[in-house]
Specification:
Helices cover 42% and strands 14% of the residues. By secondary structure, the protein is of the alpha+beta class. The chain folds into four domains: 2-214, 4-Layer Sandwich (Glutamine Phosphoribosylpyrophosphate, subunit 1, domain 1), CATH 3.60.20.10; 228-366 and 474-544, 3-Layer(aba) Sandwich (Rossmann fold); 389-466, no CATH class; 554-617, no CATH class. The longest helix has 18 residues, at 600-617. The two termini are 42 Å apart.
Length: 638
């Protein structure tokens, strides 16, 4: 596990050294560099496997193939054994060196043999060719930019800013998408000229030309399931195997334990596989509706874990600029705050944590899936027109947002076709809301760009035979990598902690994808098959409880602890002079929130965008390096 960076087309060891210094939090245990006449590769290392000897960059026998690598290859013992039998010689005992020898054997297609999470760069000296790759679902990030003559890449965008020739400019299209999704989706980044390599893709740079191609996509074509009991047993074995291979390493390990089915199943599997003690880490809140610690304790007590808790009773405004620095781009999932805190708690005890990410996407865990299934049979033309008319009438009657407004919103949702309905559920700002927020210049520049087209394309390209399966597939290729995995990677790596996700084992995902949707959502029961499979492992209270999600009391915080920051950052002269958002529209949103209407998700998205502007774009810029505590100039001074 580490951070990687490099330049090809022009060797610049000093620049790559600076890039790696910015990534030191991802790899505090050391660094490594390779310099050729046209390429420089660098990395920072968090030592977990082959702690004593697993340095990078790694090379093949004659040094003609060189690689840097971020992540873990869980099937490296089998790969290594097969490569040795073919005559390859290894100088380390870790997983990284497999890459160069696999590349020699199989070329670019070697990536299909990797079982793990990864981002890598391989330089082929003979062919003067760079290969970049990112894991199938996007657990590890990879940013890049190219002007044709050169290509620069890094694990975090801020490292690319170390090239002082690069001019920092906002990508308005990326901002437009961010305000819909609360994250900037790949292949965009928030910067003009910097892109994100999408999950499951390779990038090839050769002779100054860059091309990107996919190498993996889930197949949702249903397979016959002979019996539920048989499928249940098979799921247990697949999950145990996915956990088992993620227990490799020489450093202390633990698990995030939220109190839900997914993380509870991971803790149960770790215990059954002989981890003793299992160290577990939970975050709690003073506000009861957001606090799941009681359920986490039930699992911890059943398995006798070494359990640790942290109660988040307020939000420190100073933390927000640190998070803006770490996240590189505007990122408005508020659960980044508790994720960061539980990662910091964990790092005091362990170097690796397992988590339950992916369980909801693989097995149908979100309530929106059950909702979409229930309302999926609404008749088309006449009924939808009537619902739309009723919704408009209710919205006209009540502008403040009580029962009639909520009823109108539900009717409007019912009137939409499945993909549009899903897009409405996933949007922070609807298209009309964004355009009413923008200044005239911004609105004009973004005319005709529909963020929901991204979801429509993912939905249309799915092999799932029904609407529910296509929505799950869409989540796996949009929301999962863009939001959940980015949140986890940044929060953990900010604390030099490695996170591993057994539910995102690609063999388990491929098995789950082809399950009939009736085994995922069954008569309103979410994660039907998974709950059946792990019910012997967990207390019934955990299995049967409604899903809470990893929410925080954001609406309350924005009226209390964060109120001064909120108003200062969104209404001061610095914000107004950007020319992006209409000050009167922002002010109206603030007043509505003060008066009791919940505008927290939209306001939070605007706050995170403004903090990013102040950390990365406004002079004097916060120099990349160690994160800075917020100052008045960052958090709203005039």
């Amino acid at each position: 596990m580490c951070g990687i960076a490099g330049v090809v087309g022009h060797a610049d060891a000093t620049l790559v050294q600076r890039m790696c210094e910015v990534l030191a939090h991802r790899g505090p245990d050391g660094d490594g560099h390779y310099a050729g006449d046209r390429v420089t590769l660098g990395m920072r290392r968090l030592a977990i496997i082959d702690v004593a000897g697993g340095q990078q960059p790694v090379r093949n026998e004659d040094g003609s193939v060189v690689a840097v690598f971020n992540g873990e290859i869980y099937n490296f013992p089998e790969l290594r054994k097969a490569l040795i039998e073919k005559g390859h010689r290894f100088t380390t005992a870790g997983d990284s060196e497999c890459l160069v020898h696999l590349y020699e054997e199989h070329g670019d297609d070697f990536v299909s043999r990797l079982r793990g999470m990864f981002a890598f760069a391989i330089w082929d000296e003979r062919r003067r060719r760079l290969l970049l790759g990112r894991d199938r679902v996007g657990k590890k990030p990879l940013y890049w930019r190219s002007d044709g003559a050169e290509l620069h890449f890094a694990s975090e965008a801020k490292a690319l800013l170390e090239d002082h020739r690069f001019v920092r400019r906002l990508d308005l299209t990326a901002l437009h998408h961010y305000l819909t999704f609360q994250y900037v989706p790949a292949p965009w980044s928030i910067y003009q000229g910097i892109g994100k390599l999408p999950p499951g893709h390779l990038l090839i740079w050769e002779d100054g030309r860059t091309r990107i191609r996919p190498y993996w996509r889930l197949d949702f074509t249903p397979r016959a399931v002979v019996a539920e009991d048989e499928a249940t047993d098979e799921l247990r074995q697949l999950l145990l195997e996915a956990v088992r291979i993620r227990l490799v390493g020489e450093r202390p390990m633990g698990a995030f334990l939220s109190g839900g089915v997914d993380s509870g199943a991971i803790v149960a599997a770790m215990s059954m596989l002989g981890v003793d003690p299992v160290r577990t880490f939970s975050i709690g809140f003073a506000e009861a509706p957001f606090d799941e610690r009681a359920y986490a304790r039930m699992v911890a007590q059943r398995y006798g874990t070494e359990h640790h808790e942290f109660v988040l009773d307020r939000c420190d405004p100073d933390l927000l600029s640190d998070l803006a620095w770490h996240y590189d781009e505007p990122f408005a999932d508020p659960s980044a705050i508790p994720t960061y805190h539980v990662a910091r708690l964990s790092r005091d005890h362990v170097t690796v944590v397992l988590n339950g990410d992916g369980g909801d996407e693989c097995f149908g865990g979100y309530q929106r899936y059950a909702l979409m299934q229930r309302i999926g049979r609404i008749p088309t033309a006449p009924a939808r027109r009537l619902l739309t008319l009723c919704a408009s009438a209710l919205a006209t009657r009540d502008q403040r947002g009580s029962l009639s407004r909520r009823l109108g919103s539900a009717m409007r949702l019912l009137a939409q076709p499945a993909p549009e309905r899903y897009g409405s559920l996933m949007s922070i700002f609807a298209a009309a809301e964004k355009h009413s927020l923008y200044t005239d210049d911004v609105r004009s520049e973004l005319a005709g760009i529909n963020s929901l087209d991204l979801l429509d394309r993912a939905y249309a390209s799915s092999t799932a035979p029904d609407a529910l399966g296509r929505l799950i597939d869409t989540d796996i290729h949009t929301y999962l990598p863009g939001d959940l995995l980015a949140k986890m990677d940044i929060a953990t790596m900010a604390n030099s902690l490695e996170a591993r996700s057994p539910f995102l084992d690609h063999e388990l995902m491929e098995w789950a994808a082809r399950l009939p949707t009736g085994l995922k959502i069954n008569r309103g029961t979410t994660k039907y098959l998974l709950k059946r499979a792990v019910s012997p492992w967990l207390p019934p209270e955990v299995i049967d409880r409604p899903k809470m999600g990893f929410g925080i009391p954001l609406a309350t915080w924005l009226r209390t602890d964060l109120r001064d920051l909120l108003w200062s950052v969104l209404t001061d002269a610095t914000a107004k002079q950007r020319g992006l958002f209409r000050p009167d529209a922002v002010l109206a949103m603030l007043h509505r929130h003060e008066q009791g209407r919940d505008e927290s998700r939209r306001l939070w998205a605007l706050v995170q965008a403004e903090l990013w502007f102040r950390v990365f774009l406004d002079p004097p810029r916060v120099r990349p390096g160690a994160p800075r505590r917020a100052s008045s100039s960052v958090l709203g001074g005039h």
